[in-house]
Amino acid sequence: MMLAAILEPVGLGLCTWGSVLAMVACVLPTWRVTAFLDSNIVVAQTIWDGLWMSCVVQSTGQMQCKVHDSVLSLARDLQTARALTVVSVVLGALALAVTLAGAQCTNCVRQEALKARAVYAGGLIYVISGVLVLVPLCWMAGNIIVDFHDPKVPPSKKREIGAAIYIGWAAAALLLLGGGILCCSFGRAARSSYVVEYPNGDKKLYV
User: Fold this and answer.
1) Fewer CB within 10 Å, N or C, the chain?
2) 45 to each of 16, 55, 63, 96, 156, how far by Cα in Å?
């Protein structure tokens, strides 16, 4: 049980940061950014494409953003990324509530067996949340790389991987790692107790 008391806050901390980064990646408009292909040309503006809006940043520093008018008008990878990322954020909030209910530092659940199962369920939900973040990130990054090397795509339409995708990858890594640690805290070795018998006949239970 002492090991579980160490693993739980570590795993929960990693997952919490992962959920925060997932929300940041979901909101940022820098999923796809303009590719600078010719260093001899002074680019007057930079284009950002996000899940919810597109932005144009002028060389003077002025920025104009426009929210996407219709979900159906978006590319398929953007539609999928928007849906899965939102579901991942919601699952992260659910996993936080479930994990805190079974954590050693709370008294929401009294029975030790139920507390362990709640933490395991929370860790499993966090793992699913991390997978849901990772799938659209890899899909969109793959499409960006393919279009970048496709000679049929005009240079003005080529994009590069934006900062939001890198933040999303970090979020997925934290969610998967933290969720795995929470699931490991459910193991018998992490929550086992043992009895020490002294020469005078006294017994003491250690957890």
Assistant:
1) C
2) 36, 10, 9, 41, 11
Per-residue pLDDT of 158-172, as tens digits, reads: 888 999 999 999 999
Q: What is the residue whose two structure tokens read 């426009």?
A: 66
pTM of the predicted model, to two decimals? 0.81
Classify 196 as helix, strand or coil: strand
Distance of alpha carbon 5 from alpha carbon 160, whole angstroms: 43
Contact of 181 with 6, CB cutoff 8 Å = no
Return the CA Rg of the chain. 23
> For the chain, give me the number of helices (H) and strands (E)?
5, 7
Q: What is the DSSP letter of 177?
A: H
Q: Which of 150, 154, 193 shows the shortest CA–CA distance to 4? A: 193
Distance CA 10, CA 115 (A): 17
Query: Rounded distance, CA 19 to CA 190, Å?
Result: 25
Maximum separation of any 2 CA atoms in the chain, in Å: 87
Residue given tokens 């003077």 in the structure block? 60
Token pair of 41, please? 């040309």
Distance in angstroms (rounded) separating the CA atoms of residues 84 and 50: 14
- Mean pLDDT in the chain? 81
More confident residue, 166 or 49: 166
Nearest one of 51, 10, 47 to 168, comparing CA atoms:
51
